[in-house]
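Lab notebook: predicted structure, single chain.

Context: the supervisor wants predicted structures on file for every construct in the current expression panel, including those that have not yet been purified. This is the next one on the list. No modifications to the sequence; it matches the entry in the shared construct table.
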Amino acid sequence: MSPERLGRAAYRAWTPITLRWADNDVYGHVNNTVYYQWFDDAVNGWLIEAGLLDVEAGDPIGLVVATSCSYFAPLAFPGKVEVGIAIERPGRSSVTYRVGVFAKGSDKPAAQGQFTHVYVGRESRRPVALPDTWRAVLETLA
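Prediction complete. Output recorded below exactly as produced.
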């Protein structure tokens, strides 16, 4: 059973993406693995822009521990998509993001899913509580 398709109002931040020739598979639509790249780009791009993620020296860092995606409509090159994110579930040391992939201008997602980071110490790789400063910024996606 597919989940309910959530419209644009369910998302708080957006990443525009231009489809590439290489995104299509032999069946003429965007390959399912590309959607997971978009999830990664949207979440981590937002974290960097928000000043939370420093990929070279930051601490803590987020490790992906779970992802899921439901597909509702095909997308294909050429074209543009908009990837929306929001916080689905905040935890003590983890965050599950809601992610929606929309064809540019569409009100209904072509795909939607979840993307979960567990935040760990850069050196220890053990879970750490999210700093209060992070929580305050992450709440803007709630």
